[in-house]
Amino acid sequence: MKKSRHLHPGLSGKTSGFRKTLPEPEVLARQIMAGDRLALSRALTLVESRKPEHRQMAGRVIRHILPHTGNSLRTGITGVPGAGKSTFIDRLGTEWVRQGHRVAVLAIDPSSSLNRGSILGDKTRMEHLARLDEAFIRPIPSGDFGGGVARHTREAVLLCEAAGFDRIVVETVGTGQGETYVWHLTDILILLKIPGAGDELQGIKRGIMEMADLILINKADGELAEQAEQAARMFQTALHYFGSRPNEQAKVMTVSALQNKNIDKVIEHLEDFYGQAQATGQLEAKRRRQAEYWFDEHLDEGFRQYVKNHPALRQLAGQLRLDVLGGKKTPHEAADIFWEKFTGGKS
Amino acid sequence: MKKSRHLHPGLSGKTSGFRKTLPEPEVLARQIMAGDRLALSRALTLVESRKPEHRQMAGRVIRHILPHTGNSLRTGITGVPGAGKSTFIDRLGTEWVRQGHRVAVLAIDPSSSLNRGSILGDKTRMEHLARLDEAFIRPIPSGDFGGGVARHTREAVLLCEAAGFDRIVVETVGTGQGETYVWHLTDILILLKIPGAGDELQGIKRGIMEMADLILINKADGELAEQAEQAARMFQTALHYFGSRPNEQAKVMTVSALQNKNIDKVIEHLEDFYGQAQATGQLEAKRRRQAEYWFDEHLDEGFRQYVKNHPALRQLAGQLRLDVLGGKKTPHEAADIFWEKFTGGKS
Lengths: 347, 347
Prior knowledge:
homodimer, 2 domains, alpha/beta, 7 strands, Rossmann fold
């Protein structure tokens, strides 16, 4: 089960060398679909790059692999630092591999940049999974990219699917914008919590609880076992009061990633969900909604970029924003003025 | 305390007659600021109109009154039909008037259109308040307008403030988009709930619980009194588990609008909040954030309108959307194509 050591070529910082040895996008796409991990890593590096020529190549790769995507359960996992996400994913992934699946883990990492250090970090964090040929672990650097992360992550999911991974885990720290992206990118979202008050103090983002499909109280072992069960009951009650309709309520379970407790039950739940969502057409419907969401998001984003790139428009929008913030114009009036000038000058 | 009977001129459907008798916007603005209810009603009708000439006049009125706005506590109230919103607002408003305030109620009403029937309905719904000179009740028809409602409501709040109302209540049914608008329009959002399971089945929207600043369990009287107290305790616990940081948690109280129970405590809480938010600068900061939110929203909206109004762009966006929904293009690729063509043709 030992695998090739050159998992992340082109990530050493020498992008020029990387560029030179890179095959044509069409070739790269075929290699990915043949299960070539080196090719997958290279494509992921292209996807993350901010260089226009890399982005263009990434686009060509994606176009080729697109018809061969979608055949995976996309699971999002969020939770505050210390909730035990890595250990949990390590267990979950290892069990999935044991059941015959191929598992890719994409970890959105606000602290990582394009260097080896962070990757070694991820390998250490998921020690069992990292040793398996059927698993693939990759950080998505989010530190410098802002809104671009969602795009990278979405494309990374597609690339992993084309490479034959049928269980994909997207991990995010539940304190920033990440979990909203991940919610719109995955089929099912798991919130990992720890029993006791410590968790609440770590600033988990308002709103996550209502996005989660499955809430796991981790560390249900040793001294915390009873506290975890109690927390689970409380969450179940809380959800009853917060949930909209009975059938939309999230499920609550206790697990111990450390002691490998209830991981099989989590998998059972995930597989049931996946099977049913496929059979009823809900999975396809959800993914279509997500695709449309991202299309609209990126159209709007493009508009903001367009304004930014045109000095006169940028200046106008900036002045109007100041007027709005200063209470000199209503937001609507200011927006109207922008659009009058925009339309007057453009059409 | 009896007031003029002609509260809603121009709402009879004869818009042409309305137009003819209407003073210049600058005059109307002065009349509003002098506390003329007829002028206020007329301006609100302008704000609601879809006719370009009315919108333009509304804009001129708003520009004049804008420096005289902001001096009110803006309270949002949401809850499913049957939660007792009208009775509660009737009590709340009446008590506020008793304490020397002037109260305006703007009820976002999905079922109402520009006719007298709905208004009479509101008057009947808030029978005590409707009789007071210091109160003003007005429905905001939302049925036909979609996204425009937020604009009307925001402008209506400003007009009421300019007319000297210092306690403004925006009411919305908690089942649609309304409560999200109202959250971004008000200083404090009250969610009115009823004890027992009935409430959950009425489809209250996922997400409201996390927007609410104050959760009131209404109908804490008679047989339901004990059940209401129990529900309040459960909500308090639920919030502890859902809330982000301790100091951001919503407060939970029981009330009986019918028996006028705890309405004074609600007012005490609202006034404390208002005083503190003003003193700490949090109120101003929140309103600036809201203003910027609406500016960005309306810039984006304007962009969508711009695309809609240009046949070639509209067709391109429509075709790309179909490609995205059909899985032929990724959302990002499709958005890129749109912006390449847009930029190519425009700059």
